[in-house]
Amino acid sequence: MSKPSLCRLITAFLVLLNFTCSKQVSAQENILLYPDLQYRIEKNLLQDPTYHSPLNRSHISLYQQEWLIDSLYGKKDHDLVRYEKGRTYVIANPVLQTSFQTGSPFLQHYVAGFRLESELSPKFTFNLNYTFHLLTTHAFPGSRLDSAAIIDHWGKAVSMNHSFEFLNSLNGEITYKPTRFLSFQFGKDKHFWGDGYRSLFLSDNAPSYPYLATTLTIWKLKYTNVVALMHDDTIGNYSKLQTKYASMHFLSWNVNRRLNLNLFEAVVWRHRNDSLNYRGLSFNYLNPFIFYRPVEYNLGSPDNVLIGIGFHFMVSQKLMMYGQLLLYEFYYKEMIKGTGWWANKNAYQLGFKRFDLFNIKDLYLQMEYNQARPYTYGHDYPLQNYGYLLQPLAHPLGTNFREALLILQYAKNRWFLNTRFTVSRYGTEPGGKSIGGDIYLSSNPFAKTFGNYIGQGVANDYFEQEITLAHVLQSHWGLIAETGIHNSFEFMPKKQQHIYFTFGIKTLLYREEKLF
Questions:
Q1: Confidence (pLDDT) at 495
Q2: Can you give the pLDDT at residue 109?
Q3: Is the confidence at residue 20, as pLDDT, over 50?
Q4: Residue 92: which region, alpha, beta or left (left: phi > 0; alpha: psi -120 to 50)?
Q5: Is it true that domain 3-507 has CATH number 3.30.700.30?
Q6: Whole-angstrom Cα distance, residue 36 to residue 18?
Q7: In the chain, what are the domain boundaries?
């Protein structure tokens, strides 16, 4: 089979998967653990020297979830459907949520669905997640997302009217594992690469996307390659989104029991170039064991390549430090001079996690700082930015920002307390002029060559506080009642404050978390 034929065949598979899900929204929430259970899983996994960063929040298995629920409540029969015969098993559980938010307007959100997981043989497993959403219309009038009928972090709505939005989310994955060292995944979902609350490499901010993934684990190394089919738009023709592709590497190395180093690389390219010539899945980027930058340079540098390095270090069994550094473009001489050269595009993250703070069991503290310079993640051709369905693939603020956050969580018996504080400054474009704050605007022409700084343009200073209290009502399926208060305050460009209360009922296997 020729290379073009092979590329077209792979493209056809991805398009088929995307078409079957095109009428369903790609939910931001996925089927995620309640935050308290998530950090408990991580606390235990970090004691395992074979564990590799990151903990993929959307791919925690039902068996891991069951282990935690069993340890918390002593329940062994909390599945709606369970079938086991030898090494084959099938597990199904419901996903439920009913939540309300006070304020103007009064918001309602109803969710119903299921999660199915099965191991048909030692080599084949699959999982399927489906949720139906009915929620009060709260899109942003006049924005790109509203014009495209795309719900922030979720995807394209099935239908919308003046009062409600109707959304379907269908995600899943088929895994083939020929050996214990190698596995292949084909599915539609999202990924999260990193140890932080945010990720500057690849996060679960944008909607789900079809992908092919390869994972290889040898010695102290774990290598993951993801090839994804994506759609986006920058010219306002939202009824016909344009196709693009992304190929991403993530290499994790457990140097010793305390230190993990990881490397990241990604390339984004268009389905068709300016002359509308077909490119499709570029065979040059499908080799999982290459560096993208030299290949892209040999092609004439037409595409968008990002590289990064990350780490986490276990200071003790209960204290972990972590960080990420992402480089798009940089010139060392100008960086040392501090001239604010526009093409010095980079981002970094630094944070720590403390488990059992003050030796109090299940008291968890996390502090984190993130920043990205102007024009990072963008491109001369906006379709080739590091985004998907009009939303960033990394940090939800996109670029040109600083952010500090603090998370405090505590669990006691059947009670969960979660708090989050966020302070940020970010710059937006004045009158649509590109100053490096919107990855969906072209980086060329840029506003100025030198003197660029984080927060340039229209400065926005933002503070957000969220406190939630939850109680397990029924441990059979992990049914919880939750109430909370959300307070946001914008200092610039104009002062405004929003306070609202939330309350609802949901399952532990479902988490709706508004990133912003």
A1: 84
A2: 80
A3: no
A4: beta
A5: no
A6: 33
A7: 3-507
